Amino acid sequence: MPLYTELPADIESVDVIIAGGGTAACVVASRLSDADPSLSILVVEAGPNSYQDPTITVPFLFFSHLMPTSKTMTFHVGQPSPFLGDRPAIVPTAKVLGGGSAVNFLMYSRGQRSDFDSWAMPGWSADELLPYMKKFETYHGKCDTAVHGTDGPIHISEGTFSVPRATDTFVHVSEKMGWKEQPDISDLKTVNAVQRAKRYISPQGQRQDASHAYLHPRLMDGKHPNLHVVVESKVVSVTFDGDRASGVTFVSGGTTRTIKASKQVVVSCGACGTPPVLERSGIGAKDVLERANVPVLVDLPGVGDGYEDHHTMTYQYKSDLAAEETLDGIITGTFDIPGMLQRGDKITGWNCLEGTGKLRPDDKDLGHLGPQFQEVWDRDFKNQADRPLTLMVLIMGGEEPVPEGGQHFSMSVFTAYPYSRGHMHITGPGVDDPLDFDAGLFNDDNSIDLLTCRWAYKKQREVARRLNIFRGEFKDKMPAYSANSKAKAEEYNKAVSSDTLADHEYTAEDDAAIDEFIKKRVSTPWHSLGTAKMAPREAKGVVDETLSVYGIKGLKIADLSICPKNVAAHTNATAFMVGEKAADILIKELGLGA
Ligand SMILES: Cc1cc2nc3c(=O)[nH]c(=O)nc-3n(C[C@H](O)[C@H](O)[C@H](O)COP(=O)(O)OP(=O)(O)OC[C@H]3O[C@@H](n4cnc5c(N)ncnc54)[C@H](O)[C@@H]3O)c2cc1C
């Protein structure tokens, strides 16, 4: 199989090099190889091989990738930030063949129609992108086939396990709060609704990642002899022949090699990985490159600029759930994982994310959010009726064990369209030089992101306390309300009838406590994007609508760094879509399969 940890010495030149072997990269490599099996392609991936690694293929082991000892992640650590209670933001990104799709939380969701239309680039409207969103998926379950795919390589289903009593109460309570259950909130238009979760899991219980669905089958079928993959090899930079990309230099096992690409170089290292590769190659903001001692080839100030990520808060609650209804047993170490795997227990084909919703505030909420928020609302949301302010997820389990023991559930909420911006830059020419990273969380004007998180906290709390599985809050995992606050922690030893509960009332002092709590705990759902935007060059764009880097021939970018604006969704579907669209652009430009 042409997958190596050390590239054979006789491979010195190929037609196409893809730097990075993540979600979008696996799609691009596979589609190009299908279009013309004689085309020689080399994928260079920094992380290890993914093939049949159970922590990847078995959904319920997903959390293992985030352990501090993980070999499949890079942990990007920012500077301590005053907006985060002087904490640094820590953003893990995938480092393994298959990228984020191989290590993520397997939650399926798509952005809204107006998200893609707002990208405002020819060929990238929602209508024009829909064929690519459909192309990668086989959607199992009730859906409109005009919107979902039925024969793509990635199976979307509910997997092999769920906890219907938890999802039922989530749906019931959400409906009472005005968010009706819908079969599909990933139809590009539905908002103010909840859904039973769909997952990147096959009906048989296997994770659906880009390496196993696209790349590995082609590396093994004998029909793609010119498709090569080298893992554990980190791309340092792109090489050039004048103003044309001519190959890449990478380090592998301490050895540096340069391989030529006669037709095309595609950088697909993800929103955190692509800017460093471009900047080490001399493509980026002049001042950043000069500070890092890298000669400027193309002055493109947009490289590494405008980083964004959804702000996420996850709130953990006590529950009456049984041990076999959550994945707490993985975190506490009480699950017999080898036995469960050997028996093929149905729970192994589960990610414990049970329900999801896309929510907008009502007029009363907007009144509480204040005039500055109202201004933003009127500008960005009021007339874009498909735009949620936040996404909400019901999780069967807690983030961390607690001394009291027991089973937990959590509610996770994230900002759909953050206003904060950060950056990702190099500080030197070497592949191991530290990166200058700032996730930018909460640095936006007028604290719109913090207000959104505060609103989302209150909303998810009203849902959580009405669920019939709820048994209480953890005092140390919630805002430090004063002893006489009406909003302080609740505890019940039995289910409370949701009809008897009035919404919490919050004073200005309570709101300040909520804000402090959020600043100290906010994290990322690992949805980095926008660091090499597809936009006009004068608007800090890095690539045009054909994904070509401005000022250079033969160099494209295909990953989530190209997103000009955010999507109200978990981002994996957008990465698959970008991969499919990029492959199509390349197939046409290179005249493959004609
Ligand atoms: C922990 C986690 C949980 C997530 N949960 C969900 C979820 O539940 N649902 C959802 O929809 N989305 C989720 N996401 C987000 C989603 O998986 C990503 O947005 C998506 O996979 C990004 O795709 P990409 O192609 O842009 O980059 P990636 O898939 O990240 O690929 C980039 C690849 O480039 C490689 N690379 C980087 N630098 C170099 C270099 N110099 N040389 C060689 N290779 C390099 C990396 O190792 C990586 O494999 C999650 C992500 C993470 C990390």
UniProtKB/TrEMBL annotation:
Molecular function terms from GO: flavin adenine dinucleotide binding; oxidoreductase activity, acting on CH-OH group of donors
Keyword Flavoprotein attached: yes
Ligand binding (substrate): C352
Cofactor: FAD
Highest rank taxon of the organism: Eukaryota
Binding site residues for FAD: V96, V235, W526, H527
Matches recorded under SUPFAM superfamilies: FAD-linked reductases, C-terminal domain, FAD/NAD(P)-binding domain
Similarity comment: Belongs to the GMC oxidoreductase family.
Name this protein carries in UniProt: Alcohol oxidase-like protein
Organism in which the protein naturally occurs: Stachybotrys elegans
